[in-house]
Amino acid sequence: MNMTMHTTTGAITGTIKQKLSQLRVLRRVLPLISLTVLVLFGQVAQAQIPTNANRTIFLPQGPGSFGTPMNVTYHPGFDQYYASSGGFPSAQASVYDENGNIVNSIAPINIDVRSWNFNANSGLLEVVTFNAVSGGTGRGLIESQLDGSGFYTGGTSTLLPNMPGNDGQQTMPAYDSGNNVFYSRNTGNTVNVVSRVDGSLSNTITLDTAAAGIGTLSSYSLGFSEPDGWLIVLDSSNNTAVIFDLSGAYVGTSILDISVPFSYGMGFTNGQLFVWDASRNGWQGYGVGVSEVASIPTMPWLGLVFLASLLGFVGFNRRIKKSH
């Protein structure tokens, strides 16, 4: 009886020691595994801001009456872009495919648009109108209704009758689905943080434009990169996109290869900054390096050496165990 218990206890103790030994080996091996993967694939996710912004797709002006170009938004459920002009409710709006081709247009849109936003929380295509700050008939935060193909129906519904936290009548607020707020600015460097729940003012952010060396801020427009928590404005004197974090601190600048508008005509969506190009009558998309996967210099043969070393180390450890 005692011999049986002793044997069982010894077996359990031996198993525990073996598991602890395996854990110690794994702890030593994990850094080598990580380094091997990094060297083999040589990629690391990081946000970068190139000196010169890289062109992506181009969205041409749609047919029909066209006023002042506003912004662009992207609906991931349909893989389509939405854009229009503003200035009068009878203007047209267009839908674009992933390559920038117009697949649907409607006129009138029945909304005096200032900014388009896709709400990832509700799945709705939302529009902040002219003078949403005060509200009134056809003003406030409006849903632009879509059919089963993601095309405009012309129907609308009021989501918020007014947005008193907005910074002025002409502002083009950008939506942050994670915090469920809008970021609104007028002509200066103050950004109003506006509740999506009731349109009230939650906070303000002061952009450090002095540190950025901005010449002339484009009026009303503002882009927001949710993955990075970046606010983006345009400098119309230097034709640049200027980036700040949500504390207002300056992050970086990227040069655009077009003449930047003095007001309106800009927005950020689907990892791209879209800016109105008056010379071609459309929105030019730019990748300003937001949440890109950046390659670092690699030597594939060195990665194989690391991998071989890893396998050899594990095999050697197993042979030691068997000899015990």
UniProtKB/TrEMBL annotation:
Keyword Transmembrane among UniProt keywords: yes
Keyword set, alphabetical order: Membrane, Transmembrane, Transmembrane helix
Transmembrane segment boundaries: 299-316
Name this polypeptide is given: Uncharacterized protein
Originating organism: Ostreibacterium oceani
Lineage of the species this protein comes from: Bacteria, Pseudomonadati, Pseudomonadota, Gammaproteobacteria, Cardiobacteriales
